Amino acid sequence: MTAMGAALGLSAHYAHLAGAKARAGHFAEARELIDRAKTLVVATGERYYEPEIHRLDAEVVLAEAGAHGTPSDARERAEALLRTAIECASRQGARTLELRTMTALARVAGRGAKGGHVRGRLAELLATFTEGCDALDLQEARRVIEEQPRKPTLAKSGKGR
């Protein structure tokens, strides 16, 4: 097996390991693994998992921001990564990866007007699935679509948010 052949498929493994590292709070290691995965995508031309790498990159950004007190640009960076992932998945015709990423974007976009727009797009994409209706990705998409926007509430201290 050639060196290039040995690298095929590693980008997916690096990406999943990065997600696990981020959930465990090992953000520097997670970032390094995402960077390795992206480097392999470019080096090998193996792009089948590229959308999921971008989605997991967004997950790492959000997990790190949540652990360190959300920097103001973390949400924007995550949204940009998720939009890139959606574009990649759409180009590839990878509808399940597109749905998974659109679901993540709807969660990040929140309950405002932007979130409502994303949920609408998610509903349109979900409607194109005619099989596998019990699949976890489809169930999660339905759950996110059905979430009703909530009115802002007062904090327990009695002050507005």
Q: Could you walk me through the main structural features you see in this protein, from its secondary elements to its overall organization?
A:
This protein is mainly alpha-helical and 161 residues long. The chain has a single domain, classed as Tetratricopeptide repeat domain (Serine Threonine Protein Phosphatase 5, Tetratricopeptide repeat). Helix content is 71%, strand content 0%. It contains eight helices and no strands. The longest helix has 19 residues. It is globular and about 40 Å long.
Key features of this structure:
Serine Threonine Protein Phosphatase 5, Tetratricopeptide repeat, single chain, 161 residues, globular, 8 helices, disordered C terminus
Task: Draw up the topology in text.
Elements: H1 3-7, H2 10-23, H3 27-44, H4 50-67, H5 74-92, H6 95-109, H7 113-127, H8 136-146
Helix pairs in contact: 2-3, 2-4, 3-4, 4-5, 5-6, 6-7, 6-8, 7-8
- Listing every helix as H and every strand as E from the N terminus to the C terminus, the arrangement reads HHHHHHHH
Unreliable spans are 150-161
State Rg.
17 Å
Say which CATH homologous superfamily is assigned. Answer: Tetratricopeptide repeat domain
* Proportion of residues in β-strands: under 5%
Helix content: over 70%
What is the domain total for the residues? 1
Supply the number of helical segments: 8
Compute the number of strand runs.
0
